[in-house]
Design goal:
- The protein is of the alpha+beta class and about 425 residues long.
- It has 4 domains: about 35-125, RNA Polymerase Alpha Subunit, Chain A, domain 2, CATH 2.170.120.30; about 135-225, Beta Complex (RNA Polymerase Alpha Subunit, Chain A, domain 2), CATH 2.170.120; about 230-320, RNA Polymerase Alpha Subunit, Chain A, domain 2 (Beta Complex), CATH 2.170.120.40; about 320-415, YbbR-like domain (RNA Polymerase Alpha Subunit, Chain A, domain 2, Beta Complex).
- The protein is about 15% helix and about 45% strand.
- The chain is built from 8 helices and 33 strands.
- Strands 3, 6, 9, 12, 13, 15 and 16 form a 7-stranded mixed beta sheet that branches. Strands 10, 18, 20, 21 and 23 form a 5-stranded mixed beta sheet that branches. It has a 3-stranded antiparallel beta sheet with strand order 1-4-8.
- The protein starts with a helix and ends in an 8-residue tail after the last strand.
Length: about 425
Protein backbone atom coordinates (compact mmCIF):
# COMPACT_ATOMS: atom_id res chain seq x y z
CA UNK A 1 0.00 0.00 0.00
CA UNK A 2 2.85 2.40 0.71
CA UNK A 3 4.46 1.53 -2.58
CA UNK A 4 1.32 2.44 -4.40
CA UNK A 5 1.04 5.74 -2.66
CA UNK A 6 4.69 6.39 -3.37
CA UNK A 7 4.08 6.01 -7.13
CA UNK A 8 1.18 8.47 -7.05
CA UNK A 9 3.37 10.93 -5.24
CA UNK A 10 6.11 10.64 -7.90
CA UNK A 11 3.66 11.32 -10.79
CA UNK A 12 2.24 14.30 -9.00
CA UNK A 13 5.66 15.74 -8.37
CA UNK A 14 6.61 15.26 -12.06
CA UNK A 15 3.45 17.04 -13.27
CA UNK A 16 4.07 19.88 -10.84
CA UNK A 17 7.63 20.19 -12.11
CA UNK A 18 6.46 20.42 -15.74
CA UNK A 19 3.83 23.05 -15.00
CA UNK A 20 6.34 25.01 -12.97
CA UNK A 21 8.84 24.82 -15.86
CA UNK A 22 6.26 26.12 -18.31
CA UNK A 23 5.41 29.02 -16.06
CA UNK A 24 9.08 29.74 -15.55
CA UNK A 25 9.67 29.61 -19.37
CA UNK A 26 6.69 31.91 -19.99
CA UNK A 27 7.93 34.30 -17.35
CA UNK A 28 11.39 34.36 -18.84
CA UNK A 29 9.97 34.93 -22.37
CA UNK A 30 7.74 37.75 -21.19
CA UNK A 31 10.50 39.38 -19.26
CA UNK A 32 13.40 38.77 -21.68
CA UNK A 33 11.60 38.53 -25.15
CA UNK A 34 8.37 40.49 -24.85
CA UNK A 35 5.90 41.18 -27.72
CA UNK A 36 6.60 44.52 -29.34
CA UNK A 37 5.93 46.65 -32.50
CA UNK A 38 8.30 47.86 -35.20
CA UNK A 39 7.93 49.78 -38.45
CA UNK A 40 9.59 49.37 -41.85
CA UNK A 41 9.25 51.47 -44.99
CA UNK A 42 9.06 49.11 -47.99
CA UNK A 43 9.17 49.91 -51.72
CA UNK A 44 6.31 48.10 -53.51
CA UNK A 45 7.12 45.72 -56.32
CA UNK A 46 4.69 45.74 -59.27
CA UNK A 47 4.33 42.18 -60.51
CA UNK A 48 3.74 41.58 -64.23
CA UNK A 49 4.64 45.12 -65.37
CA UNK A 50 7.18 43.96 -67.96
CA UNK A 51 5.13 41.03 -69.14
CA UNK A 52 1.40 40.88 -69.64
CA UNK A 53 0.94 44.51 -68.66
CA UNK A 54 3.21 45.84 -71.39
CA UNK A 55 1.85 43.37 -73.93
CA UNK A 56 -1.49 45.11 -73.42
CA UNK A 57 0.26 48.42 -74.26
CA UNK A 58 -0.42 49.79 -70.80
CA UNK A 59 1.76 51.69 -68.36
CA UNK A 60 1.44 53.36 -64.95
CA UNK A 61 1.63 57.14 -65.28
CA UNK A 62 0.90 58.23 -61.70
CA UNK A 63 0.18 56.89 -58.22
CA UNK A 64 3.22 54.63 -58.12
CA UNK A 65 4.33 55.04 -54.46
CA UNK A 66 8.04 55.05 -53.74
CA UNK A 67 7.41 53.34 -50.39
CA UNK A 68 4.68 52.13 -48.00
CA UNK A 69 4.96 52.07 -44.21
CA UNK A 70 4.19 48.73 -42.55
CA UNK A 71 3.81 48.22 -38.77
CA UNK A 72 4.72 44.77 -37.44
CA UNK A 73 3.70 43.16 -34.10
CA UNK A 74 5.66 40.25 -32.66
CA UNK A 75 8.26 39.23 -30.16
CA UNK A 76 11.56 40.99 -30.14
CA UNK A 77 13.57 38.10 -31.58
CA UNK A 78 11.18 37.76 -34.54
CA UNK A 79 10.98 41.49 -35.23
CA UNK A 80 14.77 41.66 -35.26
CA UNK A 81 14.75 39.28 -38.22
CA UNK A 82 12.66 41.65 -40.39
CA UNK A 83 14.70 43.76 -42.80
CA UNK A 84 13.88 45.91 -45.84
CA UNK A 85 15.58 43.36 -48.07
CA UNK A 86 13.59 40.33 -46.85
CA UNK A 87 10.13 41.89 -46.54
CA UNK A 88 8.28 42.47 -49.81
CA UNK A 89 5.15 44.29 -50.88
CA UNK A 90 3.85 42.82 -54.12
CA UNK A 91 1.24 44.59 -56.26
CA UNK A 92 -0.30 42.41 -58.99
CA UNK A 93 -1.02 44.21 -62.26
CA UNK A 94 -2.29 41.21 -64.22
CA UNK A 95 -5.96 42.07 -63.70
CA UNK A 96 -5.71 45.55 -65.26
CA UNK A 97 -6.87 45.53 -68.88
CA UNK A 98 -7.95 49.10 -69.57
CA UNK A 99 -6.57 52.60 -68.92
CA UNK A 100 -7.95 54.58 -66.02
CA UNK A 101 -7.75 54.88 -62.22
CA UNK A 102 -7.35 51.64 -60.30
CA UNK A 103 -7.13 50.81 -56.55
CA UNK A 104 -4.91 47.77 -56.29
CA UNK A 105 -4.64 45.41 -53.39
CA UNK A 106 -1.26 44.05 -52.40
CA UNK A 107 0.43 41.36 -50.34
CA UNK A 108 3.03 41.75 -47.60
CA UNK A 109 5.48 38.82 -47.90
CA UNK A 110 7.43 37.95 -44.72
CA UNK A 111 10.25 35.46 -44.23
CA UNK A 112 8.87 31.93 -43.71
CA UNK A 113 10.49 31.47 -40.29
CA UNK A 114 8.52 34.33 -38.71
CA UNK A 115 5.52 34.69 -41.00
CA UNK A 116 3.14 32.76 -38.70
CA UNK A 117 4.20 34.65 -35.57
CA UNK A 118 4.33 38.28 -36.81
CA UNK A 119 1.34 40.45 -37.69
CA UNK A 120 1.75 43.08 -40.46
CA UNK A 121 -0.45 46.18 -40.63
CA UNK A 122 0.33 48.43 -43.71
CA UNK A 123 -0.49 52.14 -43.59
CA UNK A 124 -2.87 51.74 -46.54
CA UNK A 125 -5.15 48.94 -47.67
CA UNK A 126 -4.59 49.55 -51.39
CA UNK A 127 -2.30 51.30 -53.89
CA UNK A 128 -4.05 53.85 -56.17
CA UNK A 129 -2.54 54.04 -59.68
CA UNK A 130 -3.46 55.75 -62.94
CA UNK A 131 -2.90 53.65 -66.07
CA UNK A 132 -2.63 54.95 -69.63
CA UNK A 133 -2.32 53.43 -73.08
CA UNK A 134 1.18 53.36 -74.62
CA UNK A 135 1.66 54.95 -78.06
CA UNK A 136 4.27 56.56 -80.32
CA UNK A 137 4.46 59.84 -82.26
CA UNK A 138 6.88 61.37 -84.78
CA UNK A 139 8.17 64.70 -83.50
CA UNK A 140 9.65 67.56 -85.54
CA UNK A 141 13.18 68.65 -84.62
CA UNK A 142 14.05 72.35 -84.41
CA UNK A 143 17.29 74.14 -83.62
CA UNK A 144 17.70 77.53 -82.01
CA UNK A 145 21.07 78.88 -83.11
CA UNK A 146 23.17 81.98 -83.76
CA UNK A 147 25.24 80.28 -86.46
CA UNK A 148 26.24 82.55 -89.34
CA UNK A 149 29.02 83.01 -91.93
CA UNK A 150 31.56 85.86 -92.02
CA UNK A 151 30.68 87.36 -95.44
CA UNK A 152 28.79 86.86 -98.70
CA UNK A 153 31.76 84.86 -99.97
CA UNK A 154 30.31 81.98 -97.96
CA UNK A 155 26.90 80.37 -98.09
CA UNK A 156 25.27 78.75 -95.07
CA UNK A 157 22.98 76.15 -96.58
CA UNK A 158 19.88 74.63 -95.05
CA UNK A 159 20.69 72.52 -92.00
CA UNK A 160 20.25 68.78 -92.30
CA UNK A 161 18.97 66.35 -89.67
CA UNK A 162 19.62 62.61 -89.63
CA UNK A 163 16.98 61.52 -88.87
CA UNK A 164 14.81 64.58 -89.52
CA UNK A 165 12.27 63.53 -86.87
CA UNK A 166 12.38 61.51 -83.65
CA UNK A 167 10.00 58.81 -82.49
CA UNK A 168 8.77 59.35 -78.93
CA UNK A 169 6.98 56.56 -77.07
CA UNK A 170 4.99 56.88 -73.87
CA UNK A 171 1.46 57.36 -72.52
CA UNK A 172 -1.00 58.81 -75.00
CA UNK A 173 -2.16 61.47 -72.56
CA UNK A 174 1.34 62.97 -72.63
CA UNK A 175 2.15 62.23 -76.28
CA UNK A 176 -0.86 64.25 -77.38
CA UNK A 177 0.60 67.36 -75.76
CA UNK A 178 4.00 67.22 -77.53
CA UNK A 179 4.60 70.03 -80.01
CA UNK A 180 8.24 69.68 -81.11
CA UNK A 181 11.79 68.86 -80.05
CA UNK A 182 14.31 71.69 -79.89
CA UNK A 183 18.05 71.98 -79.36
CA UNK A 184 20.16 75.06 -78.83
CA UNK A 185 23.48 75.44 -80.63
CA UNK A 186 25.51 78.58 -79.98
CA UNK A 187 28.81 79.55 -81.61
CA UNK A 188 31.17 82.35 -80.73
CA UNK A 189 32.68 82.60 -84.24
CA UNK A 190 31.14 82.55 -87.75
CA UNK A 191 31.50 79.33 -89.72
CA UNK A 192 33.87 79.04 -92.68
CA UNK A 193 33.43 75.29 -93.10
CA UNK A 194 30.71 72.70 -92.59
CA UNK A 195 29.76 71.99 -88.97
CA UNK A 196 28.50 68.55 -87.90
CA UNK A 197 27.22 67.73 -84.41
CA UNK A 198 26.48 64.12 -83.51
CA UNK A 199 24.19 62.96 -80.68
CA UNK A 200 22.58 66.38 -80.49
CA UNK A 201 21.02 67.04 -77.10
CA UNK A 202 17.49 68.40 -77.30
CA UNK A 203 14.41 68.93 -75.17
CA UNK A 204 10.72 68.27 -75.75
CA UNK A 205 8.22 71.13 -75.77
CA UNK A 206 4.44 71.02 -75.59
CA UNK A 207 2.13 72.70 -78.06
CA UNK A 208 2.15 75.87 -75.99
CA UNK A 209 5.93 76.13 -76.28
CA UNK A 210 6.64 75.11 -72.69
CA UNK A 211 9.36 72.61 -71.87
CA UNK A 212 7.96 69.15 -71.23
CA UNK A 213 9.29 67.01 -68.39
CA UNK A 214 8.20 63.39 -68.04
CA UNK A 215 9.92 60.26 -66.83
CA UNK A 216 7.49 58.18 -68.85
CA UNK A 217 8.64 59.29 -72.30
CA UNK A 218 11.32 57.40 -74.21
CA UNK A 219 13.15 58.41 -77.41
CA UNK A 220 16.43 57.93 -79.22
CA UNK A 221 18.74 60.86 -78.60
CA UNK A 222 21.11 59.94 -81.44
CA UNK A 223 20.38 62.78 -83.83
CA UNK A 224 23.05 64.28 -86.10
CA UNK A 225 22.70 67.85 -87.36
CA UNK A 226 24.83 69.33 -90.11
CA UNK A 227 25.25 72.93 -91.27
CA UNK A 228 26.81 72.82 -94.77
CA UNK A 229 28.99 75.85 -95.52
CA UNK A 230 30.27 76.41 -99.06
CA UNK A 231 32.32 79.10 -100.74
CA UNK A 232 30.56 81.32 -103.31
CA UNK A 233 31.80 83.30 -106.28
CA UNK A 234 30.38 85.43 -109.08
CA UNK A 235 31.46 84.09 -112.47
CA UNK A 236 31.00 85.39 -116.00
CA UNK A 237 28.95 83.60 -118.64
CA UNK A 238 30.80 83.22 -121.94
CA UNK A 239 30.98 81.42 -125.29
CA UNK A 240 33.94 80.12 -127.28
CA UNK A 241 34.09 80.62 -131.04
CA UNK A 242 36.15 79.09 -133.84
CA UNK A 243 36.84 81.72 -136.47
CA UNK A 244 35.62 80.78 -139.93
CA UNK A 245 33.10 81.49 -142.59
CA UNK A 246 34.45 85.01 -142.95
CA UNK A 247 33.79 85.75 -139.28
CA UNK A 248 36.28 86.69 -136.58
CA UNK A 249 34.88 86.35 -133.08
CA UNK A 250 36.45 89.49 -131.70
CA UNK A 251 35.49 91.56 -134.76
CA UNK A 252 32.26 90.31 -136.27
CA UNK A 253 30.38 88.75 -133.35
CA UNK A 254 28.41 90.48 -130.58
CA UNK A 255 27.18 88.12 -127.88
CA UNK A 256 24.63 89.07 -125.25
CA UNK A 257 23.93 86.88 -122.22
CA UNK A 258 20.92 86.99 -119.95
CA UNK A 259 22.07 86.79 -117.19
CA UNK A 260 25.64 87.88 -117.92
CA UNK A 261 26.94 86.55 -114.57
CA UNK A 262 25.82 83.98 -112.03
CA UNK A 263 26.78 83.37 -108.42
CA UNK A 264 27.84 79.80 -107.79
CA UNK A 265 28.78 77.77 -104.73
CA UNK A 266 31.17 74.90 -104.41
CA UNK A 267 34.46 73.63 -103.08
CA UNK A 268 36.83 76.50 -102.33
CA UNK A 269 39.74 74.93 -104.23
CA UNK A 270 37.58 74.34 -107.30
CA UNK A 271 36.21 77.89 -107.25
CA UNK A 272 39.67 79.42 -107.07
CA UNK A 273 40.31 78.86 -110.80
CA UNK A 274 36.71 79.02 -111.96
CA UNK A 275 36.25 82.55 -113.32
CA UNK A 276 33.90 82.00 -116.26
CA UNK A 277 31.40 79.40 -117.34
CA UNK A 278 31.64 78.45 -121.04
CA UNK A 279 28.23 77.50 -122.39
CA UNK A 280 29.28 76.21 -125.82
CA UNK A 281 31.96 76.17 -128.53
CA UNK A 282 30.61 77.35 -131.89
CA UNK A 283 32.22 77.03 -135.34
CA UNK A 284 31.46 80.41 -136.97
CA UNK A 285 31.66 78.84 -140.42
CA UNK A 286 28.36 77.17 -139.59
CA UNK A 287 26.76 80.33 -138.27
CA UNK A 288 24.69 81.57 -141.21
CA UNK A 289 22.60 84.24 -139.50
CA UNK A 290 22.00 85.90 -136.10
CA UNK A 291 20.53 83.48 -133.59
CA UNK A 292 18.95 83.33 -130.14
CA UNK A 293 19.81 80.25 -128.10
CA UNK A 294 18.88 78.99 -124.66
CA UNK A 295 21.31 76.85 -122.67
CA UNK A 296 20.58 74.87 -119.53
CA UNK A 297 23.17 75.49 -116.84
CA UNK A 298 25.36 72.46 -116.25
CA UNK A 299 27.94 73.53 -113.68
CA UNK A 300 31.05 71.41 -113.07
CA UNK A 301 32.36 69.57 -110.03
CA UNK A 302 29.24 69.65 -107.90
CA UNK A 303 28.86 73.43 -108.11
CA UNK A 304 25.41 74.97 -107.76
CA UNK A 305 23.79 78.21 -108.84
CA UNK A 306 23.24 80.28 -105.72
CA UNK A 307 21.52 83.07 -107.63
CA UNK A 308 18.90 80.57 -108.78
CA UNK A 309 19.28 80.54 -112.57
CA UNK A 310 18.73 77.25 -114.36
CA UNK A 311 19.31 78.50 -117.91
CA UNK A 312 20.94 81.32 -119.89
CA UNK A 313 19.54 83.09 -122.96
CA UNK A 314 22.20 83.88 -125.57
CA UNK A 315 21.83 86.31 -128.49
CA UNK A 316 24.52 86.17 -131.21
CA UNK A 317 24.69 89.05 -133.72
CA UNK A 318 26.84 89.28 -136.86
CA UNK A 319 28.33 92.65 -137.79
CA UNK A 320 30.73 94.11 -140.34
CA UNK A 321 30.23 91.49 -143.07
CA UNK A 322 28.05 90.93 -146.11
CA UNK A 323 26.90 87.80 -147.97
CA UNK A 324 27.09 87.47 -151.74
CA UNK A 325 26.20 84.66 -154.17
CA UNK A 326 28.47 83.74 -157.07
CA UNK A 327 27.83 81.49 -160.06
CA UNK A 328 30.91 79.27 -160.23
CA UNK A 329 31.84 77.59 -163.49
CA UNK A 330 35.34 76.45 -162.58
CA UNK A 331 34.30 72.84 -161.89
CA UNK A 332 37.06 70.27 -161.52
CA UNK A 333 37.23 66.52 -160.93
CA UNK A 334 40.39 64.89 -159.55
CA UNK A 335 41.54 61.37 -158.71
CA UNK A 336 39.80 59.62 -161.61
CA UNK A 337 41.11 58.36 -164.95
CA UNK A 338 38.47 57.14 -167.40
CA UNK A 339 39.06 53.66 -168.84
CA UNK A 340 40.05 53.41 -172.56
CA UNK A 341 37.23 54.44 -174.85
CA UNK A 342 35.51 56.62 -172.27
CA UNK A 343 35.64 60.15 -171.03
CA UNK A 344 34.22 61.79 -167.88
CA UNK A 345 31.40 64.21 -168.51
CA UNK A 346 30.78 66.89 -165.84
CA UNK A 347 27.03 67.16 -165.98
CA UNK A 348 26.89 70.17 -163.59
CA UNK A 349 27.43 73.38 -165.51
CA UNK A 350 27.68 75.82 -162.63
CA UNK A 351 27.30 76.06 -158.86
CA UNK A 352 25.75 78.87 -156.82
CA UNK A 353 28.26 79.55 -154.04
CA UNK A 354 27.60 81.88 -151.09
CA UNK A 355 30.56 83.84 -149.77
CA UNK A 356 30.73 86.03 -146.68
CA UNK A 357 33.21 88.74 -145.88
CA UNK A 358 33.68 92.46 -145.72
CA UNK A 359 31.98 94.32 -148.58
CA UNK A 360 35.33 95.66 -149.72
CA UNK A 361 36.79 92.17 -150.11
CA UNK A 362 33.70 90.75 -151.79
CA UNK A 363 33.80 93.55 -154.35
CA UNK A 364 37.21 92.28 -155.48
CA UNK A 365 36.06 88.69 -156.02
CA UNK A 366 34.73 87.40 -159.35
CA UNK A 367 33.22 84.03 -160.29
CA UNK A 368 36.38 82.94 -162.08
CA UNK A 369 38.31 83.33 -158.79
CA UNK A 370 36.30 80.50 -157.27
CA UNK A 371 36.86 76.79 -157.86
CA UNK A 372 34.73 73.74 -157.09
CA UNK A 373 36.45 70.36 -157.17
CA UNK A 374 35.29 66.82 -156.50
CA UNK A 375 37.71 64.04 -155.54
CA UNK A 376 36.82 60.69 -157.13
CA UNK A 377 39.84 58.77 -155.85
CA UNK A 378 38.98 55.08 -155.62
CA UNK A 379 35.58 55.55 -157.26
CA UNK A 380 34.35 53.12 -159.92
CA UNK A 381 31.80 54.56 -162.31
CA UNK A 382 29.32 52.62 -164.37
CA UNK A 383 28.74 53.65 -167.95
CA UNK A 384 25.87 56.08 -168.40
CA UNK A 385 25.09 56.43 -164.71
CA UNK A 386 25.03 59.96 -163.30
CA UNK A 387 26.56 60.24 -159.83
CA UNK A 388 26.83 63.17 -157.42
CA UNK A 389 29.99 63.89 -155.44
CA UNK A 390 30.73 66.45 -152.76
CA UNK A 391 32.54 69.52 -154.07
CA UNK A 392 35.14 71.49 -152.15
CA UNK A 393 35.08 75.26 -152.72
CA UNK A 394 38.37 77.12 -152.82
CA UNK A 395 39.53 80.67 -153.53
CA UNK A 396 43.26 80.48 -154.28
CA UNK A 397 45.13 83.56 -153.05
CA UNK A 398 42.10 85.08 -151.33
CA UNK A 399 41.73 85.23 -147.56
CA UNK A 400 39.31 86.69 -144.97
CA UNK A 401 36.37 85.26 -146.90
CA UNK A 402 34.05 82.60 -145.62
CA UNK A 403 32.32 79.95 -147.67
CA UNK A 404 28.79 79.47 -146.44
CA UNK A 405 27.11 76.05 -146.52
CA UNK A 406 30.50 74.42 -146.92
CA UNK A 407 30.11 70.69 -147.38
CA UNK A 408 26.72 71.06 -149.06
CA UNK A 409 27.96 71.69 -152.60
CA UNK A 410 28.06 68.83 -155.13
CA UNK A 411 29.07 68.08 -158.72
CA UNK A 412 27.29 65.53 -160.90
CA UNK A 413 29.44 63.44 -163.31
CA UNK A 414 28.82 60.66 -165.84
CA UNK A 415 31.06 58.09 -167.56
CA UNK A 416 30.39 58.33 -171.31
CA UNK A 417 31.77 56.30 -174.29
CA UNK A 418 33.95 58.41 -176.59
CA UNK A 419 31.78 57.53 -179.57
CA UNK A 420 28.55 57.84 -177.61
CA UNK A 421 26.48 60.59 -176.07
CA UNK A 422 25.96 61.46 -172.45
CA UNK A 423 22.72 61.44 -170.52
CA UNK A 424 21.98 65.02 -171.41
CA UNK A 425 23.00 64.77 -175.06
Amino acid sequence: MREKNGKKLSVGLLFAAIVTSLFLWAYVMVVNDPERESTLVITPQFIGEEGVFQSRELMIVSGRPEALQVRFTGVTTDLAKLKRDNVKIEVDLSEIREPGEHNLGFSVILPDEVAWRVTARPSSEFVPVVVDRIGAVSVEIRVSTNITVPSDEYLLKTKEFVPDTIIVTGPLSILNTIGYAEAEVLRSEPLTSTLTIEDLAFSLFDKRGEKLYSEYLAYDNKVTVRWPVVKTKTVQIDMEYIDGGGLIAGKNIITTFEPATIRVSGDAAELESFNKHILDRIDLARLLEPVELTYDLHLPNGMESVSGENSVKVTIEIIGVATRRYSVTNLLVTGFTPPPGYYLDIVTNELGVNLRGSPEVLDEIYPFDIYASADLTGIILAEGVSMEFAAEISLPGISNVGILNAGKYAIVVQLVPENGEGEDA
